[in-house]
């Protein structure tokens, strides 16, 4: 509907996740009216994203050099690895400040319908990291959904023979929520995982 | 939270209208995993947007040369001008195929609270376009809200002495809607503008 470039921008923005044609149009006109320096900063950031960002050779987290900043940090505990699906999950866990070990980013979860099998994930590299015996605990922090659960079970079976402690993040009621609004699977898990309260 | 460039992209995307930090993160990771050619197309489109797009010298619609494609089209009726706030409105009206004249894009609406007065809009240029007497009808198609109504009244007063026909788009119930859900202002306007039905 628009002339050349304006329509190109709307089409390209409309390909991004969560941006429909109306939002794409709104953003295009926002950029048209914006300070050229602001648009240049956005363009540069997008260009550098593909040029400079790589994946850590050890844990496959996003990194700006061969290793990510967590893998190169000597203060991180070398005895535990937290296994997650994506780099986003690393950020979420870092925000809690609960974990001082290192990570392993699988790059997804096992999903036979979507055509993702164990060989499509960085599982072989995880097993290789455990070979020297320095790691004593593996925390399986894949998503609490079907694919994440299947992936966690698969990994637990693979790692079991190596004699490490393998744990899974607790499932239960989210903090700050209302019990009556919890879905039955979550509430069921909360019952299953109930703990003795010390008086 | 992320390393350098990834965080830069999230920050820059988060500045765009309608994109919060979560969507910005989702888009950044989508682009990280995307085909480099797709990202290059987006980057090029954004770069060209600021380099190539200008505003029509006559009507201030977005254009890829000095004049927009509507102003240069000899088949468009030279006797009527439809006055709108933004280029987006031109596209919306073009989609109806109801109007064959030309446009004038004001670049906004009068809004004293927001600090937008008549001199901040392309009103002087509109008056200049009417000087040679070729235009016989002005259709005021500013938005049906307070600012749009104020702007339409202002323009009507300015244009009245020139002896042109000045019209305003009809207000009333939106097609496909339910009468009971119409707000009272819309329903009031629909009564005010009621028309005789020929049996």
UniProtKB/TrEMBL annotation, chains A, B:
Domain Toprim intervals: 79-174
Keyword DNA damage in annotation: yes
GO MF annotation list: DNA binding; zinc ion binding
GO BP terms: DNA recombination; DNA repair
UniProt zinc finger (C4-type) residues: 56-71
NCBIfam families reported in the protein's UniProt record: recR
Family per record: Belongs to the RecR family.
Name this protein carries in UniProt: Recombination protein RecR
Lineage: Bacteria, Bacillati, Actinomycetota, Actinomycetes, Frankiales
Chain's gene name: recR
